[in-house]
């Protein structure tokens, strides 16, 4: 199947890179991306799925999905750490693992329709005021949407992958205190 553009293997991959202290000292830039092809974590025999107690053990977005993540870390002063990040994640059609379906199992199209998306921007500042004692402040803006596909409503997909309090455009403010590890 490797050379056939209409067929695929059941795989998921993740790649990333991080650049630290160059060209600017105390600054690092991280990039990661993940892609999972259709039916990667499913099987027609329930005990052979990549799950335990109906909980997927593969990528958190399951099969037929992709995401991109970028993070900028800055340490402007000793004991002070600032992080900003951007995430864009999408999920495609939910295909059943059936032998007599409309496609052969290895021919389901990747991301034919978008069923769910998450766009998130985060900012976080940490200050270590004493050895292994931190104060953290964070702010997150997110836009999580569902899309109608395969005869199911946008609300169906939105509710399937996202808790109700994160539906649509939301903002979160965080404050934390940590002593120890």
Give the helices and strands as they follow along the chain. EEEEEEEEHE
In the sheet with the most strands, the strands line up as 1-2-5-6-7-8-9
Class of secondary structure makeup: mainly beta
Strand content: over 45%
Secondary structure: helix percent: under 10%
> What gap, in angstroms, lies between the N and C termini?
48 Å
Could you list some keywords that capture this structure?
4% helix, two-stranded antiparallel sheet, 7-stranded antiparallel beta sheet, 1 helix, 181 residues, single chain, 49% strand, 9 strands, mainly beta
Element layout with pairings:
Layout: E1 12-20, E2 27-36, E3 51-52, E4 55-56, E5 65-77, E6 80-91, E7 116-130, E8 133-146, H1 154-161, E9 168-179
Antiparallel strand pairs: 1-2, 2-5, 3-4, 5-6, 6-7, 7-8, 8-9
What does this structure look like?
This protein is mostly beta strands and 181 residues long. It contains one helix and nine strands. The protein has one helix spanning 154-161; strands spanning 12-20, 27-36, 51-52, 55-56, 65-77, 80-91, 116-130, 133-146, 168-179. The protein has a seven-stranded antiparallel β-sheet. A two-stranded antiparallel sheet has the order 3-4. Strand 7 and strand 8 form a beta hairpin. The mean pLDDT is 93.
């Amino acid at each position: 199947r490797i050379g056939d553009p209409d067929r695929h293997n059941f795989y998921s991959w993740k790649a990333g890179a991080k650049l630290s202290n160059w060209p600017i000292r105390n600054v690092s830039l991280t990039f990661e991306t993940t892609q999972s092809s259709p039916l990667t974590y499913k099987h027609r025999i329930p005990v052979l799925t990549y799950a335990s107690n109906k909980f997927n053990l593969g990528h958190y977005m399951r099969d037929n999905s992709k995401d991109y993540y970028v993070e900028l870390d800055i340490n402007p002063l000793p004991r002070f750490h600032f992080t900003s990040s951007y995430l864009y994640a999408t999920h495609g059609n939910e295909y059943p693992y059936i032998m007599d379906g409309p496609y052969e199992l290895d021919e389901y199209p990747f991301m034919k329709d978008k069923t769910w998306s998450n766009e998130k921007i985060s900012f976080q500042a940490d200050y270590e005021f004493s050895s292994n004692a931190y104060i953290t402040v964070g702010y997150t803006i997110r836009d999580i949407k569902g899309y109608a596909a395969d005869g199911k409503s946008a609300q169906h997909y939105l509710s399937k992958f996202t808790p109700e309090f994160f539906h649509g455009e939301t903002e979160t403010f965080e404050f934390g205190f940590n002593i120890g590890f």
